[in-house]
Design brief:
7-stranded mixed sheet; Methane Monooxygenase Hydroxylase, Chain G, domain 1; 13 helices; binds flavin-adenine dinucleotide; 3 domains; alpha+beta
């Protein structure tokens, strides 16, 4: 059994290096608490936040607008959103976005006139690249004396005593550490890397979902995964800025047909419908010959540069796993069923229901990141000491001894399996096959002695996350939002409810 080294205590430990984690850490530090950020990869330079398009959409601070906005979110979520989370999002978004504007971290805001007064409703960097927001924010964090950053450290397990959080088990270079914490915030992002075709980075292996499950927390809506229909896969990999489709770009199949012609909005049709139509084509190509080049240069110059670089070659496109609507079940104050354990950002579930609106994932990190920071700081302030300040070696008895093997092959089989059998179009037979395969891989990983412990734990997390996704997909015998079952193609009112995995 591996030894665990104690490395001290903190008021608030935040897991993750994306926007949700950074907002939570910054806010907790404002309450004079000692904060430690634990991130597998560099803070502000990892996860989905840094590669995002930086687009934030939010309701203007206007009563009538907020009401109609709420309805839009719930309609997109096909009526199974957590209403408390929606209310909190709509109520707080505008004010929390004002706070971000004051930080001067590269966001440009747009306003519109409502009842004779200007109201903000949109923010993005120019050009629309997440790094212009995440890097300045991480630089602010680095100036804070009461925030310590542990980069390259991976949270492995939330340590709990009598339903109360008391710290985190952490891995670094095949060693295990215990950090005691009065409060813990999970902000580990999503799990798109579970799919072979994805827009997500390779650190998004669903660790937060798996850690939450191991901690006994319920997870909600795990079947709802948004597949993004705007990504090139060959000869270069790049996100496509959807607005180019209103400026002359189009998708063609291998026969040269514009297969979205039958829909009024064509390539700008609802993302689920477009992804499904793409799934049924043999090959899909992005055609930008007739696209307004000045618009491209202005709005997506890097895509334009690639277009010039590979001129003459056909640009292949595929839908990709992009965003997980489901996740850890939280309350509106980001608290969970474990005292002192909070959760925010993409790893939390419930706000978006069965599908999310564009630009809401980043606003979600702003709203709930701030709330998690504030609530965790208050909670830590109410505790004089943590329940335990060391852990027994048995805590990590599920972690294997070090050997010489690599789980890369298992990871890749799993990712292909998820794409082929639990992807855009699902059915009972494929899902059962996917489940059998994942169980087979679970047996294989149990007996593997890894050269790198991190690879093994990530693989284990991917398996746990995949199992939750598949089980939820099998249970939901209807199509709703981003979940499409070819054997149950209609939405069924009896299924207007959530699936919760324990
Ligand atoms: C290409 C792309 C473009 C997008 N564009 C937009 C957009 O314009 N607007 C919008 O609203 N949404 C967009 N999204 C979605 C949005 O970016 C994400 O939902 C959001 O950034 C998630 O933020 P987060 O902080 O929760 O997680 P992330 O930014 O994904 O960060 C997770 C962090 O946790 C770390 N981590 C993971 N596991 C562990 C562990 N076990 N221990 C320690 N650290 C860990 C990771 O290394 C990473 O630092 C986009 C997504 C993608 C992939």
């Amino acid at each position: 059994m591996l030894q665990i080294m104690n490395i001290g205590i903190t008021d608030v430990a935040v897991i993750g290096g994306g926007l949700a984690a950074m907002y939570a850490a910054l806010e907790a530090s404002n309450y004079d608490k000692s904060v430690v950020i634990i991130s597998k990869k560099p803070v502000g330079r990892s996860g989905a936040s840094v590669i995002s398009k930086s687009v934030h959409r939010f309701p203007p601070d206007h009563l009538k607008e907020k009401l109609s906005y709420k309805n839009k979110i719930i309609e997109a979520g096909r009526y199974i959103n957590n209403r408390d989370l929606v209310d909190t999002f709509v109520e707080h978004a505008s004010q929390k976005m004002d706070n971000i504007e004051k930080l001067k971290v590269g966001l440009n805001f747009k306003e519109k006139l409502i009842d004779g007064k200007n109201h903000k409703y949109f923010a993005a960097c120019k050009p629309k690249m997440g790094k212009h927001l995440t890097i300045p924010l991480s630089n602010i964090i680095k100036t804070k004396d009461n925030i310590n950053i542990m980069e390259g450290y991976m949270a492995v397990q939330i340590v709990i005593e009598r339903d109360t959080v008391c710290g985190i088990l952490i891995e670094n270079k095949n060693r295990l550490y215990f950090l005691g914490a009065k409060a813990v915030v999970i902000a580990t992002g999503g799990g798109g890397y579970n799919y072979i075709q994805t827009s997500n980075t390779n650190d998004l292996t669903g660790d937060g979902y798996a850690m939450a499950l191991r901690a006994g927390l319920p997870l909600i809506d795990m079947e709802f995964i948004q597949f993004y229909p705007y990504r090139t896969v060959y000869p270069f990999q790049h996100d496509i800025f959807p607005d180019i489709f209103s400026h002359g770009a189009k998708y063609l199949n291998e026969k040269g047909e514009r297969f979205m012609d039958k829909y009024p909005k064509k390539e700008l049709e609802n993302r689920d419908i477009l992804s499904r139509e793409m799934f049924f084509q043999k090959e899909i190509y992005l055609n930008i010959e007739d696209c307004d080049k000045d618009f491209m240069k202005e709005e997506c110059d890097d895509l334009y540069d690639n277009y010039l670089k590979y001129k003459g070659e056909q640009i292949k496109v595929s839908p990709v796993a992009h965003f997980m609507m489901g996740g850890v079940k939280i309350n509106a104050d980001t608290s969970t069923d474990v005292r002192g354990l909070f959760c925010c950002g993409e790893v939390a579930g419930g706000l978006h229901g069965a599908n999310r609106l564009a630009g809401h994932a980043l606003t979600e990190t702003v709203v709930f990141g701030h709330i998690a920071g504030e609530e965790s700081a208050h909670y830590a302030g109410s505790k004089t000491k943590i329940s335990v300040n060391f852990v027994k070696e048995e805590t990590a008895n599920w972690v294997p001894n070090i050997g010489e093997e690599s789980p890369t092959n298992i990871k890749n089989i799993l990712r292909r399996n998820m794409w082929e059998s639990a992807g855009i179009v699902r059915n009972e037979d494929d899902l059962q096959r996917a489940k059998d395969k994942v169980e087979e891989l679970e047996q294989q990983i149990k007996n593997l002695k890894p050269l790198k412990l991190r690879d093994w734990i990530e693989c284990q997390n991917m398996i746990q996350t995949s199992k939750m996704i598949i089980d939820s997909c099998i249970l939901r015998k209807e199509s709703r939002g981003a979940h499409y079952r070819s054997d149950f193609p209609e939405e069924d009112i009896n299924w207007q409810r959530n699936i919760i995995i324990n």
